[in-house]
Write a structure and sequence with these properties.
globular; Rossmann fold; transport; binds adenosine-5'-triphosphate; nucleotide-binding; ATP-binding; 10 helices
Amino acid sequence: MPGRGAQPPPVLRVEGLGVRYGALVALDDVSWEVSAGEILGIIGPNGAGKSSCYDATTNMATRSGRVWLDGQEVTAVPPHRLAALGLKRAFQQNAFFTTLTVLDNMVAVLAREAGTGLLPSLFMPWREASRRAALEDEAAEILERFGVPRAMHGLRPGNIPYGSQRMLSIALAFGRGARVLMLDEPAAGLGGADMARLAELLRGLREAGVALVVIEHHMDLIMSVADRIFVLEQGRALATGRPQEIQSDPRVLEAYLGHAA
Ligand SMILES: Nc1ncnc2c1ncn2[C@@H]1O[C@H](COP(=O)(O)OP(=O)(O)OP(=O)(O)O)[C@@H](O)[C@H]1O
């Protein structure tokens, strides 16, 4: 890519993304990229087009533009295939199987990733017992890595603390692994201690080589963890740069805070 010097090639690159809802232009000619072991923060005022940008990237909205994953064009690839290729996403709202335990939610994700036919049999105890035990071990390890302790694995998701629910959401999105993980406001509703755990988790994933794209309204969090920030305003790219550049960019201050510093 031009101007990236010795940077590794991007894992995910989007170019010219556009989304319209009827007459409303939610996203207009937006391009960005993210590399392995990098955190790209996406910020912007409410309604700026951040979620539409995720929908466009993961082919969950009718859109224009193009998307490349690991150098391969994936513009026409449907969302579930993108996930299988390693482009994964967590949503603003937690989405669990509320009647399953925390552990079984994770097992269900692993079973789905393992392929056809396994999911129904996993919940029949007389079949696939050893396979199920192996998946349970794997699920428990992933949950612990994402900060959901074993004491919570037998509970229903609605009965664990909200901060742990958010971590569970990220674990379920990540599954067995991701090349790119896109998170939509992971810190929404979190208090200080949970926010610190989340920051630690994001840094750990970056350390492991995951490319992270994080929409976030909590400026302290995103400015402290992101390597680069991409700013959207009214569907268009306003600025991109390192956190300290973005924090002192008068255009961003004007758009985001309603005044220049
Ligand atoms: N399904 C939809 N139908 C019609 N308009 C939509 C739809 N989804 C989003 N919009 C509109 O598109 C624009 C961009 O919305 P989007 O949710 O992408 O912004 P956002 O930056 O993620 O906002 P927020 O920070 O509030 O989540 C907004 O004006 C929104 O009202």
